[in-house]
Amino acid sequence: MTVTEIPTTAIPARRGTGVTLPDGTTLGVHPLHAASTDLFARFVESLSPEARYRRFFQPVPRPTERFVRPLCDVDQVRHIAWLLLAGDTPVAEVRLVASDHEPGVAELAVAVDQDWRRRGVARRALSAIGVAGAAGGVHTFTATIQADNRASAEMVRSLGLTLRFDDGVLSGRGPVPAWTGTPAEADAIRSLQAAAANRANLAEVA
Ligand SMILES: CC(C)(COP(=O)(O)OP(=O)(O)OC[C@H]1O[C@@H](n2cnc3c(N)ncnc32)[C@H](O)[C@@H]1OP(=O)(O)O)[C@@H](O)C(=O)NCCC(=O)NCCS
User: Which domain range does residue 108 map to?
Assistant: First the structure.
């Protein structure tokens, strides 16, 4: 994986880290924050009703402010959340939420725009966010997947998680995927995440 500095014009006056897909396309990484609600709502609106149901485990007819705010206004430490951007357009969401009960364990969530699927976006995004999580001590990913969500089940299996049927859903668990990029790329991700956590912290103090 290649991580490069590219401009993300959707967010004025900031530059973002990019994640490069197997076909060479680079997507910008936008760590979500309190002012990202419009961008995040745009992404949710771009998903089909089925994809919204798969991702959020509930129908989301309209991404209201009340719905999107807690998904954007996160600390970027225990709750790491990114949009991936193609130019100014959000094409994927990826996040890790630390367990309250098990140190080092974080639940993953991901959704990819229909036109960007089967290009390695989910796998690469989860590998990259795994680097950010590992910097904060995350060593294990968990996932909760609807029993008939084959694409997601196969995707997390391909990352090395083991799935079991549990109370009507598939529960996945496994180590944070091995990083296949360079040390410099991992450093770029960690720097981006440290800046995002700092910004969230400052916003809270203000
Ligand atoms: C599940 C989802 C995130 C996968 O995203 P993606 O970017 O297409 O996945 P990737 O391209 O990284 O695929 C990685 C691997 O997953 C598996 N996979 C992905 N989509 C698949 C599908 N439709 N059928 C079977 N296997 C699939 C394959 O093993 C694939 O590797 P390969 O392409 O080399 O064979 C996407 O389909 C999606 O957004 N679905 C709706 C929301 C959702 O279900 N989110 C998960 C809830 S946590």
Answer: 3-205
Q: Is 91 in the pocket of ligand 1 (CB under 6 A)?
A: no
For 89-136, the pLDDT digits (tens) are 999 999 999 999 999 999 999 999 999 999 999 999 999 999 999 999
CB of 22 within 6 A of ligand 1: the answer is no
Kindly report whether the global pTM for this prediction surpasses the value 0.85: yes
Residue with tokens 């410099």: 184
Instruction: Tell me how far apart the terminal alpha carbons of the chain are, to the nearest angstrom.
Output: 37
Other CB atoms within 10 Å distance of the CB of residue 194: 15
Question: Is the CB of 123 within 6 Å of ligand 1?
Answer: yes
Residues 51-70: tens digit of each pLDDT: 999 999 999 999 999 999 99
Domain harbouring 66, CATH code: 3.40.630.30
Among residues 101, 97, 127, the alpha carbon closest in space to that of 109 is found at 97
